[in-house]
Amino acid sequence: MAGTDNRESYSKAISQLFTALPATQEYPEPLNTTVKGRIPEWISGSLLRNGPSVFQVGNDKYNHFFDGLSNIHRFNIQNGRVTYQSKFLRSDDFKRATGADRIVLSAFGTFAYPDPCKNIFQRFFSYFKMGDVTDNGAVNIVKMGEDFCGITETHKIRKVDPKTLATLGEKIDYADVVSVNGASAHPHIDNDGTVYNIAIKYGLYSTYHIVKIPPADKGCENPLQKATIACTVPMSYSHPAYYHSFGISENYYIYIEQPLVVNIWKALLYKPFKKPVRDCIEWHPEWKTYFHIIRRDTGEELETKYMTEAMFLFHHANAYEKDHHLIIDVFGYHDSDLIDKLFMKSAQDGNPLNLAEPWRFILPLNVKKDATAEENLVTLEGTTASATKQTDDSIYCIQENIFDIEYGLEFPTVNYRQYNGKEYRYMYCFGDEFKQLFKGDCKEKTYKSWEEEDCFPAEPIFVPAPDAKNEDEGVVLSAVMNVGDKPSFLLVLDGETFEEIGRAEVPVRVHWSAHGFFEPE
Question: What's the CA gap between 386 and 461, in Å, rounded?
Fold first, then answer.
């Protein structure tokens, strides 16, 4: 009975979250919040958040969680006080849809029919014209040079004013500077402002690229104007693989090529056959997953080929090098079923969302020529991860769980500014019906958690304390959506104890957001 009760509780939570997710209002003027407990006065800056929130235009509904139009949020923290505001991103996609009072551009799980006002011949031929690429930057908000940008997984981005949240100027296109058709929504940003991102050039023989964007000059209108291709990786499969993020360490770029691929031939025909983009994507569990390890100084891929069984992932957590090994931490899945479970009707009906497992792969960088198939090439102590040499000299890797936990997890973050690409100990994420926040100890394989009834916390963001001496000395911030009769709020947890310090209650509902960051002032 307990198992049945847990499943029912899980279904109810998922249904609550996705039923409450759609937003119809924005709050562009800062709203005062009510602080309970305390907000440390050393915190000075803004937590910026982004995510899909608008799921209906006129009588048309977006079918998939990925499809919703962007809603950008800002919690500004000064002297122990907090204000909140939100605004819909005025992308071309948003303006065309709201102007026509219907969905105009097809999205991941939603097919947009031609304009009913066109005559029959115009509507027919519109099916054979490749669709526009969306600039609905609903996945993340990042800082590129001096610019704050709402981004998604296409090659088009939108600039946003970080204080008013107003959409600025025209859309900016990676393809105007480098020859790519798409880029991830999870670039890596060095402390000097250099941006790295993984991108793709689609074609008969597609290629993956790492794009490098140097720190921009102040006042420049296009943060991508000096972008260059740092390296190129050819595809291993017959079709290009889907990616959502990539890894970076001190000396390497890390691209995991997973067997979830875009069928190019289906993509060319999705409009005439009135299919959404989802129908062009295929999962091949019989294929291997490949680790492409590229030197940052030369742009050359290592000759050693690393692989594992078929796996799917959205998010890299961190990566670092230690004693001639490359440690790669990801949140992985054994299949890609979650993508279909994120259709809005499925989630609103309470169908379970199986979240990821925290996996650590350890790749030996110096492989002995005389290594045997029985020999574990991972020589680090305190790990069960393994890597063995195959008959074709490739290295087959088996992961270990980063920490012992019984829940599915997602959206891993770390103390990014100080530990990204470096050896680290602590990881933050959410999981268990989307209702809990976790702090994982990667050394002790233990965790701490936070949870409150009717509350759905968003991606946790760590903010280090001034002159912090310990990795976890600081606070963890999360925008929490309350679906009950109590206020939504900004949650502030102690980074070390993971206990609540305070919260800032908002007089309006704060809708759940996907990704963002803290910008100090």
Answer: 31
Type of residue numbered 243: Y
Model confidence over 420-450: pLDDT tens digits? 999 999 999 999 889 999 999 999 999 999 9
Question: Mind listing the pLDDT tens digit for each residue in 28-56?
Answer: 999 999 999 999 999 999 999 999 999 99
pLDDT, position 510: 96
Pairing of strands 247-248, 252-257: antiparallel
pLDDT-based confidence at residue 121 (cuts at 50, 70, 90)? very low
Q: Are 257 and 236 in contact (CB under 8 A)?
A: yes
Structural element, H or E, at residue 69 = strand 69-78
Rounded Cα gap, residues 61 and 236, in angstroms: 37
> Following DSSP, what letter does each residue of 289-338 receive, concatenated?
EEEEEEETTT-PBPSS-EEES--EEEEEEEEEEETTEEEEEEEEESSSHH
Per-position DSSP letters for 257-290, written without gaps between them: E-SEEE-HHHHHHTTTTT--GGGGEEE-TTS-EE
- Between β-strands 140-144 and 147-151, what pairing exists: parallel, antiparallel or unpaired? antiparallel
> Strand pairing of 500-505 and 489-494?
antiparallel
| Region of poorest pLDDT, from 246-260, 268-282, 325-339 | 268-282
Q: Which amino acid does the sequence have at 126?
A: S
- Close Cβ partners of 158 (under 8 Å, ≥ 6 residues apart): 89, 90, 91, 135, 137, 149, 150, 151, 167, 168, 171, 172
Dist. CA 479–CA 112, nearest whole Å: 32
Question: What is the 3 state secondary structure string of 219-235?
Answer: CCCCCCCCCEEEEEEEC
Model pLDDT for residues 476-513, shown as the tens digit of each residue: 999 999 999 999 999 999 999 999 999 999 999 999 99
Output the pLDDT for position 277: 84
Give the pair of three-digit tokens for residue 459.
């991606």
End-to-end CA distance of the chain, in Å? 52
Tally helices (H) and strands (E) across the chain: 7, 38
Burial of 3 (0-12, 13-18, 19+ CB in 10 A): exposed
For residues 318 and 424, the answer to whether their CB atoms sit within 8 Å is: yes
C-alpha span between 430 and 445 (Å, rounded): 16
